[in-house]
Design goal:
CATH class of the largest domain: Mainly Beta
CATH architecture of the largest domain: Sandwich
Strand content: 15-25%
Mean pLDDT: 79
Number of strands: 11
Oligomer: single chain
Structural class: alpha+beta
Order of helices and strands: EEEEEEEEHEHHHEE
Shape: rod-shaped
Largest sheet: 5 strands, antiparallel
Low-confidence stretches: 10-32, 264-281
Length: 281
C-alpha cells in the first residue's frame, strides 16, 4: 500500500544563497518512522538552477519513494507543479540515503518565475521496498520446511498473519500423514482379502483395498505437488526480487551521476558517494 508524506519549506528568496531547514516526518506508528532532512539550498542564478540536497532515512522497514516537488511564488498561498525540469533524486524509485539531491532548472520550467517569496512543498509517496526480502537462496528454507521460504521473499498484502506460511506446512504434512494412515488401512484390508473364505468377501475386500491404496497414493502425490510448487514459487519470486533490486540500484546510480555524485572506492572495497558540483553567483 502506498503512503504519503508532505513537507513545506519556509519562505525563501534567491538572495538567500544558503538556507538550512529541517523537516522531520514522524508516522503515527513510531516503529515505522521515516525522516526527511533537507540541507542547504544552492542557487545558480546564471544558469537558473536550484540544487536541493537532502537526507532521506528509513525506519525499521526499507521503503522506496516517489517524490514530487511543488513551488510557490506567493508565500505559499498557491503551489504549482509538480516540477518537470528537474533531475537527480526526484520522481519514482528513490532509495533512502544521506546524499540525495534535486537539481531544478527553473529557467526552463517557468520563465516568469523570479524567486521572490518562494516556497517549496515536497510530497513523498512511499511503499515497502523489495530490499526487505531475500533472493533465490530463500528457496532452501522451503526445501527444509514447506512454506518457510515465503515470508522471506514476499509481502502478504491480503491475509497478513505473520505465520501464514504454516498453512502450507500443515497441508503438506497433513497429506503425508494421511497417506501413511490410508496406506496402513489399505494393508489391513488387503490382509482381510487374503484371509477371505468366500469369493464375495474376497472381491469386496480386494476392491476396497485397491481404492484405499489409490487414495494413499493420491494424497502423497498431492503433498509432493504442493511442496514442489512452493519451492518453485519461492525461487521465482526470489529471482524477481534480485532483478528488481538491481534495477533500483542502477536507476539510483544514474540519479547520482545526473547531479554530479560519483562513487569513490574505499580501502575496504566498498563505495561511498562523493559530491562534485559547482555553485555560481
Amino acid at each position: 500500500m502506498t503512503k504519503k508524506l508532505i513537507s513545506k519549506t519556509p519562505k525563501a528568496t534567491f538572495l538567500t544563497l544558503f538556507l538550512t531547514f529541517f523537516t522531520f516526518f514522524i508516522l503515527s506508528n513510531a516503529l515505522f518512522a521515516q525522516s526527511l532532512v533537507q540541507d542547504s539550498i544552492k542557487v545558480d542564478k546564471k544558469n537558473k538552477t536550484i540544487t536541493v540536497p537532502y537526507q532521506l532515512k528509513n525506519g525499521e522497514i526499507i521503503n522506496v519513494y516517489n517524490i514530487d516537488v511543488y513551488y510557490s511564488g506567493d508565500k505559499g498561498r498557491t503551489f504549482l507543479g509538480p516540477i518537470k525540469n528537474a533531475k537527480g533524486h526526484v520522481g519514482a524509485d528513490i532509495l533512502a540515503g544521506d546524499n540525495r539531491q534535486i537539481l531544478w532548472q527553473y529557467g526552463e520550467e517557468d520563465k516568469e518565475f523570479k524567486g521572490k517569496d518562494v516556497q517549496f512543498k515536497l510530497i513523498a509517496n512511499y511503499e515497502t521496498s523489495v530490499f526487505n526480502y531475500k533472493n533465490e537462496n530463500a528457496l532452501w528454507r522451503s526445501v527444509l520446511l514447506p512454506g518457510w521460504g515465503n515470508p522471506y521473499v514476499r509481502e502478504y498484502k491480503k491475509f497478513k498473519w505473520k505465520y501464514r506460511w504454516l498453512l502450507t506446512t500443515a497441508a503438506v504434512y497433513g497429506l503425508i500423514g494421511g497417506s501413511f494412515v490410508q496406506q496402513n488401512i489399505a494393508d489391513k484390508t488387503y490382509d482381510t482379502y487374503l484371509n477371505s473364505t468366500n469369493n464375495a468377501d474376497a472381491t469386496k475386500s480386494y476392491a476396497d483395498a485397491n481404492k484405499q491404496y489409490q487414495i494413499a497414493q493420491g494424497m502423497a502425490v498431492l503433498a509432493g505437488a504442493i511442496w514442489a510448487t512452493d519451492i518453485v514459487r519461492v525461487g521465482l519470486k526470489g529471482r524477481k526480487n534480485r532483478i528488481e533490486k538491481n534495477r533500483l540500484l542502477e536507476k539510483n546510480k544514474k540519479m547520482d551521476a545526473d547531479v554530479g555524485i560519483q562513487l569513490a572506492q574505499t580501502r575496504l572495497g566498498q563505495y561511498s558517494p562523493v559530491f562534485s558540483f559547482s555553485v555560481k553567483f
